[in-house]
Amino acid sequence: MKQNLTFGETLSLTSMLFGLFFGAGNLIFPVYMGQMAGSAVLPALAGFLVTGVGMPLLGVIAIGITGSEGLRDLCRKRIGDRFAYAFTCALYLAIGPFFACPRCVTVPYEVGIRQILPAGMSSQTGLFLFSLLFYVLTLAISLKPGNILTWIGRILNPIFFVVLGILLITALTHPAGSIASFEAVGAYSANAVAQGILDGYNTMDALAGLAFGIVVINVVRSRGVTDPSAVAKNTVRAGILSCLLMAFIYVLVALAGAGSRGFAALSDNGGAVLSDIASYYFHGYGALLLAGIVFFACLKTVIGLVTSCSSCFVEMFPGVLSYKKWAILFSTITFVIANAGLSSIIKISLPVLMMLYPIAITLIVLAVAGHIVPFPVEIRLGMMTAAVISSVFDFLRALPADWIAAANLGGILDFLEANLPFFADGFGWLLPTIAGFVIGGICARLRAGRSVPDADKTDDEISADRA
User: Fold this and answer.
1) Is there a single domain that holds both residue 291 and residue 410?
2) Domain limits for position 426
3) Cβ atoms within 10 A of the Cβ of 337, count?
4) Dihedrals φ, ψ of 185, to 5°?
5) What is the pTM of this model?
6) I want to staple 378 with a disulfide (CB 3.0 to 4.6 A). Which of 255, 257, 444, 453 is the partner?
7) Is 346 inside any structural domain?
8) What is the DSSP track for 108-135?
9) Number of neighbours of residue 85 by Cβ within 10 angstroms
10) Does 363 lie in the same domain as 300?
11) What is the mean pLDDT of residues 203-222?
């Protein structure tokens, strides 16, 4: 029985997993961080890598070391069946056809394609045609999940590396000034490491780490590795290598962002920073180059998400729809929602994703730490219950300002900000989840304490007591 992938298969799997992870958001966050951090870019990077790389890596490791078949199996083992179905459906639909996939379609259009539309073409028409092209490509590749290693690991990802490499190598080898001379601004001037941690957290890649586990497992098995422990080992190895590759790219992108201070004013977002870099170094071709970078970055991710969602729903709801029908359904939903436009998608999606993220992180902690030191059921339920309830706080905090005003939620948010530690930074769930751990531990100790007297009794004495 085959126990390990070959060196070439491991490289292809690593490339595929990196391609699944690395979308447009993974470019926009670090390049913006680099520009704002300036001379403090290295401390900011240190913080960013802790959460931006550490969390998705732990997500893949959680699936691997627990021997889980995917997210639902992991949830079932740690919490229970009902939670497993509810959270798995919510996560896959949120980072799949309802929110993240449509956003991945509209980001390359807004950042790059829109700038090179033919004169006279309306923005809405351009978005429709571009999203239609995206739909066709996504569906063509997703309908054959057995070929995803080839398409993403050996074709799309290498193209992405070449296009991105042209921009980064040019920018880093032809600096417009010394990074050391650019002062950090905003929160980066006070504590660059802490702000970098927040930036990495906001990528929300831990969700992707849990979602893509099923794709990696299926690819490993398709290459002849079927023993559960060997599948886990190869999955974890690919996760570690792909996250190291992500860390390397993050460093280069952040340094390029910091160097942009030599020729560009501070921008409001990472997309604008990338546009400034491309325009400065490639003049008339900058918009086209940037469009190619973001297009390939997002196409890889959407294909991975559609494949993951379809594979998961086939397993969760056997006999309802075939894999191909799920893929067609999810791709079509993505196409329809994408045409609502980027602003509308972000307005709706961000609160939902921010609510799911604390639950995902808690699940990962329970899986990884619990694999080393098994947690009693009371601790697992206590932590997850607290995380689910307190995640609503992050949902409310991320709602659009006009929605908050219309629902009269300002008073509640002000109260939470004044009384709940870390709420203003997006970590309002942290203290309640720790409290859930403590309460669960107390309950477990009380349960164990009640059973102690029986430990010294004979079976006849215990039977007599019960009688």
Assistant:
1) no
2) 351-467
3) 22
4) -125, 160
5) 0.86
6) 444
7) no
8) HHHHTGGGGPPTT--HHHHHHHHHHHHH
9) 15
10) no
11) 85
pLDDT greater than 60 at residue 162: yes
pLDDT tens by residue, 10-25: 998 898 888 888 887 7
Tokens for 226?
């079927």
- Is the model's pLDDT at 456 over the cut of 50? no
Rounded to whole angstroms, what are the CA distances from 440 to 84, 176, 381, 383?
A: 20, 56, 7, 7
Contact residues for 355 (Cβ-Cβ < 8 A; gap 6+): 391, 392, 394, 395, 398
Spatial separation of the C-alpha atoms in residues 418 and 420, rounded to whole Å? 6
User: What pLDDT does residue 451 have?
Assistant: 58
Q: What is the pLDDT at residue 113? A: 81
Amino acid identity for residue 21 in this structure: F
pLDDT tens-digit series, residues 79-130: 999 999 999 999 999 988 998 899 889 888 887 788 778 878 888 899 999 9
Assess whether 318 and 397 both reside in one domain. no
CATH number at residue 136: 1.20.1740.10
Contacts of 435 (CB under 8 A, 6+ apart): 386
- pLDDT score recorded for residue 462: 36
Burial class (CB in 10 A: 0-12, 13-18, 19+), 117: middle
User: In Å, how far are 255, 368, 370 from 50, measured between CA atoms?
Assistant: 17, 16, 20
User: What is the rounded distance in angstroms from the CA atom of residue 289 to the CA atom of residue 18?
Assistant: 21
Tell me, yes or no, whether 460 lies in a domain: yes
Percent of the chain with pLDDT over 90: 55
Distance CA 132, CA 101 (A): 13
Give whole-number Cα distances, 333 to 254, 319, 323, 339, in Å. 34, 21, 15, 10
Domain boundary among 339, 371, 392: 339
Rg (CA), the chain: 24
Q: How many domains does the chain have?
A: 2
Whether residue 364 lies inside any domain: the answer is yes
Taking Cα atoms as reference points, which of 384, 294, 251, 243 lies closest to residue 107? 294
Residue 211 counted as domain residue: yes
> CB pairs under 8 A, 24+ apart, for 122-127?
124/339, 127/338, 127/339, 127/341
* pLDDT above 80: residue 180: yes
- Same domain? For 276 and 421 the reply is no
Q: How far apart are CA 135 and CA 217, in angstroms?
A: 26
Tell me the average pLDDT of the chain.
89
